[in-house]
Every structure is written in C-alpha cells, then in structure tokens.
Amino acid sequence: MPEIIPQDYFRHEDVVGIARDLIGKILVTNVENTITSAIIVETEAYNGPEDKACHAYNNRLTPRTEVMFKEGGIAYVYICYGIHRLFNVVTGPVGVGSAVLIRGVEPLLGLETMFIRRNNNQKMHNLTQGPGLVSQALGITTDHNGLPLLSTNAIWIENAKMVPDDQVIASARVGVEPSGPIWSKMPWRFRLKGNKWVSPAK
DNA sequence: ACTAGGATGGTCT
DNA sequence: GACCATCCTAGTA
Questions:
Q1: Mapped to the 3 state alphabet, what secondary structure does A27-79 carry?
Q2: Nucleotides of C under 7 A from a protein CB
Q3: Span CA (A63) to C1' (B11), Å
Q4: Were both Cys, which of A5, A25, A174, A185 would link to A201 (CB 3.0–4.6 Å)?
Q5: Containing structural domain, residue A61
Q6: At what angle are helices A111-118 and A131-138 packed, to 10 degrees?
Q7: What residues of chain A score a pLDDT lower than 50?
Q8: Nearest residue to C5 (CA, C1')?
C-alpha cells in the first residue's frame, strides 16, 4: 500500500530540502474518477520573502500569493503566460510564503488519460516534461488552488524510496533571470540524473 | 539540430 | 500597459 505523505512533512522551513526530497516521490490526481500518477523527477524551490524570484518575495501579499502564506501541504496553482497552469506545493509554517514548483514528472498510471488531456498522439516525449505539461497531463487546474494534498481532495503525494544524492542534480532555476544574478543562480532546481522526463531547459 | 516568434490572460503598477 | 516560474509551430539547416 502506498503511503500518502502527511501534510506535516511540508511544514518545516527548509523548502530547498523539501524540493530535493520530493524527487522520486509520486504525484497522484483523481479527477473525474480517473487516477493519474507520475514520479516527480524535477522540482524548484522558491524560498519565501528573501528570494527575489519567489512570488512571495518581500512578503508580498496579494490575492494570488495568499495561499503561499498558508500552512505547508496545500496546492498553489497559478496561470503563467495566460495559458499554462503551474503546480506548486506550499511549504513552511503559516506566514512563510515558500513553495516547491513541480517541473517534470515520469508518467506512471493513467497513460491513456494523459494522452487525451495532452491531445498528443501517443508521442511519449513531450507528455509531461515541463511544468505546464505536468498540469495538463494530470488534469490540474486553478480549481486545485489552495486544496490540502489529501486523497479526499483529488490530489496528493505518495512516499517512495529515497533517491540517493548521486542521482540528483542541483542547478540554477529556469526562467528567473530577471531576478538578478544572485537569486537566479541559486542551485535550487533539482532533477533526476539521466531521466528523460525532465524539462528541456538546460 | 537549432532559433524566432506567437499564443493568451491574470496580476500588479 | 508591462510583465511574466511556458509551450508549440514554422522556419532554416
């Protein structure tokens, strides 16, 4: 029996550690009574008020960022470039606006459904590599924003064997150049070495 | 292989 | 009205 990661797990302050730890864990959704699941192979940490690349930088509180300040273990979903939904896991205690962006997953269950949602004719590549595609394939929408990660809420994360450090690459985050040389270079992007489901970005 | 540009809309100044 | 934590297509090679 797979064990669902309890919400407590996401409530400590070390968002970078959580991002690293989530590599290899299983993201599961149950929308319209269909289960889809996938192994998390790429993440990025957004580290609260001090991190200029983080939406909650300087504790900026807006209707959008509100859920980031809630207790860890809930979903933060926002729309990017008007088209894509990006799924994050909120971390930290109440009042700390940090989160982990899920950037790439390796499909596990519900392949048929993912192909349909992605409108992609059985082309395995491009199915779930990239944060926008992850949400498409798993059926994640802004309806999930603010939901606790519980099986009763149709979205949750299951535990899996710890991935050893020599299998994980840490590097700079993607698409955050405007945040300046310091924050854009923090090695807070994690990916599974050699996995073909990580996003194309270098 | 690679690069350039367009799609498309919420959010914030 | 500018700014995006992106992806896809069409062009050239």
A1: EEEEECCEEEEEEEEEEEEECHHHCCCCCCHHHCCCCCHHHHHCCCCEEEEEE
A2: 3-8
A3: 9
A4: A174
A5: 7-192
A6: 120
A7: none
A8: A175
Q: How far is the CA of A32 from the C1' of C12 (A)?
A: 44
Contact A46, A167 (CB under 8 A): no
Q: Would you say the C-beta of A83 is within 7 Å of strand B?
A: yes
Sign of the CA dihedral A164, A54, A60, A62?
negative
Round to a whole number and report the distance in Å from the CA of A32 to the C1' of C1.
Answer: 39
Q: Is A197 within a domain?
A: no
pLDDT confidence of residue A202: 62
A37-90: pLDDT as tens digits: 999 999 999 999 999 999 999 999 999 999 999 999 999 999 999 999 999 999
Q: How far apart are CA A68 and CA A171, in angstroms?
A: 23
* Residue A17 half-sphere exposure toward CB, CA atoms < 13 A: 7
CA closest to C1' of B11 belongs to A64
CATH of the domain at A51: 3.10.300.10
Does residue A116 reach within 7 angstroms of strand B, measured from its CB? no
